[in-house]
Amino acid sequence: CNTNIVMGILMILAPTLNYQCGDIANIPVILDESQKNDIDTITKENIQISKQDWDSFETSWDFVRHPLVGSAAPQLAEATLAQRYGAYKAACEERFDILKANEEELNRIFIAIYGLQDELTLDVADKDVTVTRVYDAKEDIPEPMKGNNYVLTKQDVVKSLLSYAVGCMFGRYSLDVDGLAYAGGDWDDSKYTTFIPDKDNVIPITDTEYFKDDVVGLFCAWLKKVYGADTLEANLSFIADALDGRGATSRDVIRSYFLKEFYKDHCKTYKKRPIYWLFDSGKQNGFKALVYLHRYDADTIGKVRVEYLHKMERIYENETARMQDIMDHTDSAREKTRATKTKEKLQKQRKECRDYDEKLAHLAADRITIDLD
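Request: output the structure for the sequence above.
Response:
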């Protein structure tokens, strides 16, 4: 049914947008027992290749770990992210080549069985081969492949790595066990030895590192555990280059991504059914924090409010006073201008946090519970 033989027949039997059961039942079937073993072998390999490809994405039921963490090549155990990315890209290309060759071989077999050598070609277009291909940039994607759901860029791969890292920060995934480590039920500390998840299930995202469990700080700690401390800066640079965002340093670029784009990408990945929830005070980015839905309890909102939002308000108050002190005592016009702009920004963020606190107060008092089922 996946060969161009059947597609050609269906164009005759049902030249419309959809096929009914009767149309499929009317497909003439010619069996050739001498070819059965070859057909079965190739088909099983195609299924295995496609499943292996699909299971490399965290939305698969059988997802084990991210391909840049579970390296495509064993010899890359101590490799940098750039090297692992290269190995993953090559592995994807190899799967693509094998699947395309197999599909064309199946076409050749069935064209011969049906005697349609003069009517059909065995060729399969690249855009019709449904496994992942990875390109370094959008400009590298050939025109026929654009818009294909199986085409990824280096940026897409890196964003999926950041998503997996956040999963490890929350304990959804673990570097010590395969697949889901926690998705509700009883928490098991024994599953986490290499990297310990965030203790209180609240990860703040701010424009400057104010908290010890700041998302960028946790991500750097995670990178050290996965790839080693020696390659940290090289790996951060690789990630920042792939994200192609604004920032003076690689950490700034990564922070900007978490602050402005991560949650949008997360909702897209999970089809607007996010498993991480974002507490967001508004456009000034005064306060943002992620929580993991499967670890949510009646005290989570209160914890976000008291342990993080209130602390953020005090931080803004102190930083505003510090900027005012600089303005009062500096002789540098440039420094005074910078401090004035920073103070104005901090005041807006502080006001936004106060307004947000009023919204969270009654929700925290209600101690709302959630039934995951």
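The mean pLDDT is 93.
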